[in-house]
Amino acid sequence: MNIKIADSWLREYLITKARPLELAEKLSLTSVSVEKVEKIDNDYVYDIEVTSNRLDLMSVIGIAREAFAILPRFGIDAKLEIPQSKITLSKEKFPILIKSDSKIVNRITTVAIDVTVKPSPGYIKERLEASGIRSLNNLIDVTNYVMRETGHPVHVFDYDRLNTSELTIRESKQGEKIITLDKKEHILSTGNIIAVNKKEEIVDLLGVMGTLNSVVTENTKRILLFLDNNEPSHIRKTSMSLGIRSEAAILNEKGVDPELAMATLTRGIELYSQIANGKVISEIYDDYPNKPKVQTITVTKEKIDKIIGVEISLKQVESILISLGFKTKLLANKIEAIVPSFRANDISLQEDIIEEIARVFGYHNLPSILPPLREAESYNLASDNFYWETRIKNTLKYWGFTEIYTYSMIPENLLEGPREEAVK
Questions:
Q1: For range 374-400, the mean pLDDT
Q2: What is the structure's pLDDT at 363?
Q3: Four-point Cα dihedral 296, 82, 153, 325, nearest 10
């Protein structure tokens, strides 16, 4: 997976004097692979490859958090600032009854807002386009903007086009039809997560793509800002069977952190108030039946030092883990780490914790040590030329030499002589 991020956007959350190329170099040494840094007008754009297990890095805030942990290890000051969104809420009851099944839905967070449709301001257009996302209008742009910023996909309904007092989230039935936002008709099988109104009209293919009958238009006056967090296996099945590979589907099928939902929703509300004359007209609806379990992992100092190969103090270990978002507790010759929700799908073992410590400490700071070799007593290594040849090659390699293979040089007379019996 790749993500493109404008440097100016990143520095809204990451306060550092590190230059763009310097930042890219340090990230590539210890974390993600920054494949390219491109200067566009007065800004720089990072093209970053993110491995599929690090979904938390598919966002501006995720990369800022990672850089905050890494830069100080190279003597570069860095500060992480994630301000709380400033919004004005409403006491009006949420206008739609939402029914859902906790077997397929982990969390639904939504709110109704009065809005005005107009073009987005320049900075939002520029940042979205630098990220490879086309700017459409302020209502849609906000959903893409906050998704890129926080890493949680967002959807927006035209509230009036839903034309319902009830919204039911359920699995699809064989043969049901929808027309998605890209104006393509799809015939559904069973097991897709859909939203239907009171008339049983499908108004959303959750986690994958919205439907044409509920999309916002230039005439939209009221919206539902809608965040859903669903069972990833259902999203994957739907996306692959229908051939819809939207960015929302790619993120959702890997298991987005449901704890991001409220911060993402309030950030969306804040942006709508700034660029769409947004006014919240209902309370926030938040149904959260499947909260993830908090994971606590304890690792001994002995195991950390043994696996990494160098001695690292527990104070240094604690500093690294805290900078990565872990909560820690120092015990006698061991450390207890509480895994942050955004790493819940990635960190589950002691070895995972040790890997985090090692990469932030810096793989380049670890010595190259050959593993010990067990030698069978009944085997005479002194007479094994292949064994000694391999040992010599490895020793020279670790001293910095490079082995090359070339064409064999043979005497010219070996090429002469009769060829009658040569194989054709």
A1: 74
A2: 85
A3: -20
Helix, strand, coil % in the chain, rounded to nearest 5? 35, 25, 40
Q: Which two tokens stand for residue 126?
A: 């520029």
Q: Are the CB atoms for 20 and 37 separated by under 8 Å?
A: yes
DSSP 8-state assignment for residue 320: H
Mean pLDDT across the stretch 403-416? 76
End-to-end alpha carbon distance in the chain: 50
pLDDT band of residue 374 (cuts 50, 70, 90) is low
Identity of the residue numbered 54: R
Would you say 371 and 78 are in contact if contact means Cβ atoms under 8 Å apart? no
Full strand arrangement of the beta sheet holding 327-331: 296-300, 334-338, 327-331
Nearest CA to 48 among 100, 115, 2?
Answer: 2
Compute how many other C-beta atoms are within 10 angstroms of the C-beta atom of residue 325.
18
Report whether pLDDT(419) > 70.
Answer: no
For the chain, the domains span 2-80, 97-287, 296-365
Is 296-365 the same fold as 2-80?
Answer: yes
Diameter of the chain measured on Cα atoms:
100
> Cβ distance 337 to 57 under 8 Å?
no
β-strand 166-171 against 97-99: which pairing, if any? parallel
Q: What's the CATH number of domain 2-80, 1.10.10.10, 1.20.1740.10, 3.30.56.10, 3.10.450.50? A: 3.30.56.10
Helix, coil or strand: residue 287: strand
- Look at residue 375 in the predicted model and tell me its pLDDT: 56
Question: Does residue 276 register a pLDDT over 80?
Answer: yes
Predicted pLDDT at 391: 86
CATH superfamily of 97-287: Phenylalanyl-trna Synthetase, Chain B, domain 3 (3.50.40.10)
Residue-averaged pLDDT of the chain: 92
Q: Which fold has domain 296-365?
A: Phenylalanyl-tRNA Synthetase; Chain B, domain 1 (3.30.56)
Q: What is the pLDDT of residues 103-121, one digit of tens each?
A: 999 999 999 999 999 999 9
Cβ neighbourhood burial of 140 (10 Å; 0-12, 13-18, 19+):
buried
379: Cβ–Cβ under 8 A, 6 or more apart, which residues? none
pLDDT digits (tens, 9 = 90+) for 182-203: 999 999 999 999 999 999 999 9
pTM of the model as a whole: 0.85
Tokens 């919240």 identify what position?
Answer: 280
